[in-house]
């Protein structure tokens, strides 16, 4: 089935669409057009049901289909940060169809695609709760920070009632929360926006590498100045500290060698330059999951925040992910509860409808 894709800039668009290639290489913002992240016109909601506290049920699309948005996370600027597709499902059977969700994620071909389904169980009565799963183009993952931020942004701006400030996600990593917060002082000073979303994620420990893994690191990083090498206790990511943030930003790793490494991928980090306003720089390479470089990885900072917090003697840190798209993460450690609070912004750049909703059909897109 051919893929059709339009942005929802004009909800009255003609039903005659040109076939287009669904490309996600967005390196510029076209001039002379309205901002792609502008909020859609408000729709008249139906009455919210008792099973859906705080949710406005809106009829956005004339045709049957699944509402989706592409959201750039950890940035206030379109086409920066890390893009994630967010799909709002209405059918529990669809939310259990892993093969279909994997096909959709491959179709979007972004680092992650998130799938949301409203949880109407009694345990979800205190705050809006959604089931949340994340898929890369080739596999499901158990934790994803930027797609969680993107999902929360989508819900707060397009689905939940305006007074709602907290949303819960039931995931394979437990219950995660996202809430609206005021911008941290460091963000205000740098000229960023004034409304942020805060994620509450589990802290991840470091473990020692097996000695057999260490000789391959110089070749993997093409001779970069390595200070230390560790692994994350959960995904087995290699955590490689370099001598400087500049070296992190400039590094051109050997992707073929990274594919041979154990674990999910390689996280490269280093101290931020003096006067930059950041505490450390980061990059994350994970070709095994269909993404040579993850532009901004929230979950990587569940292990980096305690690592740099211990080195710098700080509980509040600001990280810069030095990928070509770049992104900013504001971090706060909660050692007593072994949690990391991750704050950031997001911006919607695309909305539309995912068609082909029958169980055995292939996905296609329509605005």
TrEMBL record:
Do the record's keywords include Ribosomal protein? no
One example GO MF annotation: isomerase activity
Q: Where is the composition biased (Polar residues)?
A: 1-14
Q: Which InterPro entries match?
A: Phenazine_PhzF-like (IPR003719)
Q: Which Pfam families does this one have?
A: PhzC-PhzF (PF02567)
UniProt keyword annotations, A-Z: Isomerase
User: What protein family is recorded?
Assistant: Belongs to the PhzF family.
Name this protein carries in UniProt: Uncharacterized protein
Organism of this sequence: Panicum hallii var. hallii
């Amino acid at each position: 089935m051919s893929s059709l894709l339009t942005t929802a800039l004009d909800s009255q668009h003609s039903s005659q669409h040109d076939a287009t290639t669904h490309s996600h290489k967005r390196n510029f913002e076209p001039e002379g057009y309205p901002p792609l992240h502008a909020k859609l016109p408000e729709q008249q909601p139906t009455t919210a049901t008792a099973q859906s506290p705080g949710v406005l049920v809106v009829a956005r699309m004339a045709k049957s289909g699944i509402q989706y948005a592409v959201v750039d996370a950890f940035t206030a600027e379109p086409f920066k940060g890390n893009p994630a597709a967010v799909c709002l499902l209405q059918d529990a059977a669809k939310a259990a169809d892993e093969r279909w969700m994997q096909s959709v994620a491959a179709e979007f071909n972004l680092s992650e695609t998130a799938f949301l389904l409203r949880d109407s169980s009694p345990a979800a009565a205190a705050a809006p709760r959604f089931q949340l799963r994340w898929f890369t183009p080739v596999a499901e993952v158990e934790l994803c920070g930027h797609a969680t931020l993107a999902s929360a942004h989508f819900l707060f701006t397009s689905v939940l009632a305006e007074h709602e400030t907290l949303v819960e996600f039931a995931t394979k990593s437990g219950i995660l929360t996202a809430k609206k917060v005021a911008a941290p002082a460091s963000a205000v000073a740098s000229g960023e926006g004034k409304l942020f979303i805060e994620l509450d994620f589990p802290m991840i420990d470091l473990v020692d590498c097996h000695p057999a893994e260490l000789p391959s690191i110089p070749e993997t990083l093409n001779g970069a100045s390595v200070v230390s090498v560790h692994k994350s206790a959960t995904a087995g990511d290699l955590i490689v500290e370099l001598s400087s943030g500049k070296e992190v930003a400039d590094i051109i790793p050997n992707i073929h060698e990274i594919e041979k490494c154990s674990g999910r991928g390689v996280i490269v980090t280093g101290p931020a330059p003096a006067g930059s306003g950041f505490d450390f720089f980061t990059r994350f390479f994970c070709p095994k999951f269909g993404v040579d470089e993850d532009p901004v990885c929230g979950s990587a900072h569940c292990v980096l925040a305690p690592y740099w917090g211990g080195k710098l003697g700080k509980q509040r840190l600001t990280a810069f992910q030095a990928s070509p798209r770049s992104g900013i993460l504001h971090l706060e450690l909660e050692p007593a509860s072994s949690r990391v609070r991750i704050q950031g912004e997001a911006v919607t750049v695309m909305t539309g409808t995912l068609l082909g909703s029958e169980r055995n059909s292939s996905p296609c897109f329509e605005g």
